[in-house]
Amino acid sequence: MVRLPLTPEEVARGERLGALLRRARGERSMLMVALDAGISPETLRKIESGRVATPAFSTIAVIAGVLGLSLDAVWAEMSPIECTEDAARVQPLAS
Fold it and tell me: 3-state DSSP call for residue 63?
């Protein structure tokens, strides 16, 4: 299967995700976080460096859990400003 090139927006989103994970990891070693998450240190390194701009949801969920991040916080960091502004204007559905 041929993978399409990433858009500039996808690359930027991956970089924001990586920066968030690095900040949340703080002084903890990459090895320990990866082992606690059940992923390889190489996978975590690639995500943190932005080389994997679109990691699987389950991978991000488990890393976020190990780092004590809510998925809402991860999504807010990854979402472009326009997207979060649009979401704020959406009205809840009437029951």
Answer: helix
